[in-house]
Design a protein that fits this description.
Number of domains: 2
Binding site for substrate: 311
Pathway: Lipid metabolism; fatty acid biosynthesis
Order of helices and strands: EEHHEHHHHEHEHEHEHEHHEHEHH
Subcellular location: Endoplasmic reticulum membrane
Number of helices: 15
Shape: globular
Organism: Paracoccidioides brasiliensis (strain Pb18)
CATH architecture of the largest domain: 3-Layer(aba) Sandwich
Radius of gyration: 30 Å
Largest sheet: 7 strands, parallel
Family: Belongs to the short-chain dehydrogenases/reductases (SDR) family.
CATH superfamily of the largest domain: NAD(P)-binding Rossmann-like Domain
Helix content: 40-55%
Length: 450
């Protein structure tokens, strides 16, 4: 027999008899408090979970003087450094922290499983209260995360979106900005196919005419109008002409798709002033002004749908795309506030979050599991109107493409979208993109010089 933690504590019980626990320490439960207090205070918030889940056998024994005993593993003193009582509140707060939710869920589930299997009845009141509080907190955290995940799966893969006719009958009009190519062109084609007339808005009149002709070829019953304007100019006359054009139209759907990003990922201090001004003017001010022209008539008719095309760059701070990231973050908060304002009037606002899509702006040509083409992205968006997909916890927001929905859930509910890990990964990715873009520019410059 060997000595235990202290002179007042029973010795180790080394037994190898069949049916008996091996190498256990018999400790009075009232001394357990002193054991915890006496161990190292230099421990992290999950040490108590490691300590609690290490119990192999826990019992209450009635003996003379009604003393309670608890069996714990003999190796506790050399492997575990549990939290002291003052650290319990910090532990519980950490369990609820979004930055460590995944670790908290795993530890909470392990703790509940062990304590459900064995009976733990501490002698002191604070231990009983802390254990109960920890169990309840762990159960709530685990249940909430599980329900959120199931809700996301149902929204992404099973539940259908609302029908477009809820927002206006077939034959009414859809206004699409940035309609000359990419996602805007696909919105125009698919909404025309769904029975809506299309007002196309973009900078190039020739490209708009080409899209209008394509609509007439594929959907002869659809009417089209075009309005060429440069959103970066912020010209009042352009907006006055647009106002006159739409005032007699029954506009049911507005797709705010116009946008601009940086030419290549660039540190903020090196970003040209004209590029920053264009990004803010097009992405923010242009979207606001178009919406202010269209929304009042929708409110009067008590119906309408406003889609705002956003980006993961607005949800995740994106180094080397700082101005673009900030402009999309603005749209996220503005559209959420706008959605709350317009909902009582029957007008639905939905911010559409997306990762990368093959387009001229992204400069990506190949599709993958996480990078759809514009056709698939638009089809997913129109089929999931009113569904949050992976962003059900965010009002008036959706990540409709299935892989983007799963990514959005992981970033917001597990990894922590503002955490250093995600920020560092984002930064490294765009630094790599910048290096490749600069090398390509040097090669092209060399070819031109020769």
């Amino acid at each position: 027999m060997r000595k235990g933690y202290g002179a007042n504590q029973p010795a180790y019980l080394d037994r190898t008899v069949k049916g008996e626990p091996l190498t256990r320490t018999l400790i009075k439960t009232k001394e357990l408090n002193h054991v915890i207090k006496g161990l190292s205070n230099d421990c992290n918030s999950f040490d108590f979970l490691q300590f609690a889940t290490s119990f192999d056998f826990v019992e209450r024994h009635g003996t003379q003087s009604n003393i309670k005993y608890t069996y714990i593993p003999a190796n506790l003193q050399r492997t575990i450094s549990p939290c002291s009582p003052p650290k319990y509140p910090f532990l519980i707060i950490s369990l609820s922290s979004g930055s460590s939710a995944g670790q908290a869920m795993a530890c909470s589930a392990s703790l509940m499983g062990r304590l459900a299997q064995f009976r733990f009845e501490p002698a002191s009141g604070w231990q009983s209260a802390a254990t109960s509080f920890l169990l309840v907190t762990g159960a709530l955290v685990t249940t909430c995360k599980l329900l959120s995940f199931l809700r996301a799966l149902f929204s992404i893969f099973i539940l259908p979106g609302q029908k477009l006719t809820k927002f206006g009958p077939k034959g009414s009009w859809a206004v699409v900005t940035g309609a000359s190519e990419g996602i805007g062109r696909e919105f125009s084609l698919q909404l025309a196919r769904a029975g809506y007339n299309i007002l196309l808005i973009s900078r190039s009149s020739s490209k708009l005419t080409a899209v209008a002709n394509e609509i007439k070829t594929k959907t002869p019953t659809a009417q089209t109008k075009i309005h060429a304007m440069d959103f970066s100019a912020n010209n009042d006359l352009d907006y006055e002409k647009l106002k006159a054009l739409i005032q007699d139209l029954d506009v049911s759907i507005l797709v705010n798709n116009v946008g601009r990003s940086h030419s290549i990922p660039t540190p903020f201090v090196l970003t040209p002033l004209d590029e920053m001004e264009d990004i803010i003017t097009i992405n923010c001010l242009g979207t606001l002004r178009i919406t202010q022209l269209v929304a009042p008539a929708m409110m009067q008719r008590k119906r309408g749908l406003i889609l705002i095309m956003a980006s993961f760059a607005g949800m995740l701070p994106t180094p080397l795309l700082a101005t673009y990231s900030g402009s999309k973050a603005f749209l996220q908060y503005w559209s959420t506030a706008l959605g709350s304002e317009l909902e009582p009037y029957g007008v639905q606002v939905q911010l559409v979050q997306s990762h990368l899509v093959t387009s001229a702006m992204s400069k990506i040509r190949r599709t993958s599991v996480t990078i759809p083409n514009p056709r698939d992205m638009v089809r997913a968006t129109l089929s999931k109107i009113g569904r949050g997909s992976g962003l059900s916890a965010y009002a008036y927001t959706s990540a409709p493409y299935w892989s983007h929905g799963l990514m959005a859930f992981a970033l917001t509910q597990v990894l922590g979208k503002m955490g250093k890990f995600v920020l560092g990964y984002n930064k490294a990715m765009h630094e790599s993109i910048r290096k490749r873009a600069l090398r390509k520019a040097e090669r092209e410059k060399g070819r031109k010089s020769t």
